[in-house]
Task: structure prediction
Amino acid sequence: MTSAPTDSERVELANTALYEAMERGDTAAMDRLWLNEPGADVSCVHPGWPVLRGRSEVLRSYALIMASTDYIQFFLTDVEVSVNGDTALVTCTENILSGGPAENEGELGPLVGQLVVATNVFRRSGDEWKVWSHHGSPVLAGREDDEDDAPGAEGDGAGPAEPTV
Result:
């Protein structure tokens, strides 16, 4: 007999569903995942973007990103979930692989990798956990403990990575 998932497990599943919807370009799923309650304005910060406020503006931004991205895949690492009552906080690293338009029909365009640290806030809505806020910030430098191997470390001649959107 299996036990019911904990709130932390359910929040982590909701967080994964957010990224899966983005990978599939599924605007209907994205619409279902975001909080839709009176007085609970949602917000979103995509890397390099200003703060987007309001459900329609946030969902529009995702629709625009999905429509202009031929390929995107997220590998989530460093996932930490914290639940306090009806609110949950997820922090993670988005290891993103994305592709631009192909030069020739039927081919895959060039692939680009990017690291983004993200904070996703969820609210319990009935029996489900819904996204209340997303904030993504590009990783421009390595961790202090990775200093010798990080781009921009002394001796390699490279500076911090340029942010991409």
User: Anything to note?
Assistant: The domain at 7-70+81-91+117-137 is CATH 3.10.450.50 (Nuclear Transport Factor 2; Chain: A,).
